[in-house]
């Protein structure tokens, strides 16, 4: 049996641990609260991973404003989000306490007050390569930048010059794009493959990313997060088209993504040195998604090699006529995009790993 002195020492150690633990937790919470307070708005550029409805009014096949898209969204209504529910920008603004959803800039119901806390310029199907957007008739990255310039003018009219500058300086800017360039433009058409090998095409994309980020900086942005390309060789559509009878992940696609990511990370590091008053952050979205795909049960999923809609092997957009019975079991919603549940997981991890890097 423990002596009275031993018991006293034991409980004293437990008490000391709990006090220290509570202080650490309080400090972390206060850091997060402070971070939230200093991010007044979220501004997003990119493709269908983050599009919240900008394609709805375009003459393009790249739309998601019809069922079954949005079946788990508020009211069960399709909004142009390429998933069964919310997409990454919605979760980011929600977790940062900015607002519930991030509206599309071209949303006809957008109100002037919405501009103050941020909007979304992303267009499903877009890419770093201008040809990528042109092929599917969506808003190019340069077009998204022009809309952002228009936004700045409107924001100034609402809040004045000083407050406008303050919002731009402290807002979080996110760029999520590049998958379409490799899967669709480079490997699906001869238009680029005839002139570039994979490495030089990756350079073309990185140069586009660099120019865009520097343009954002010139317009007042200081906190800029640029997402890498996920393991596109493991997308259900690519496994079906290029993965053989067993529908394996396609190594050469994943290798192209990794090559681009390494070049992008190096360029952002260089830009960070060039603009020391900025925070230009490379966001890895390759490794965690790959682990989720190979080990779905570890993250609460059952199926990761096909999507929930249609057969799950090739369908996207208008081809998604019917859905599975339980989308929460699936990593992928269609053959290209993730489910709301999977997006929530990735966004949470992004904020845990990278939020402090923007300060």
Automatic annotation (TrEMBL):
Pfam families linked to this entry: Lipase_GDSL
Example GO biological process: lipid metabolic process
InterPro entries on file: GDSL (IPR001087), GDSL_lipolytic_enzyme (IPR050592), Lipase_GDSL_AS (IPR008265), SGNH_hydro_sf (IPR036514), SGNH_plant_lipase-like (IPR035669)
GO molecular function: lipase activity
GO cellular component terms listed in the entry, alphabetical order: extracellular region
Family assignment from sequence similarity: Belongs to the 'GDSL' lipolytic enzyme family.
PANTHER family: GDSL ESTERASE/LIPASE EXL3, GDSL ESTERASE_LIPASE EXL3-LIKE
Record's protein name: Gdsl esteraselipase exl1
Classification of source organism: Eukaryota, Viridiplantae, Streptophyta, Embryophyta, Tracheophyta
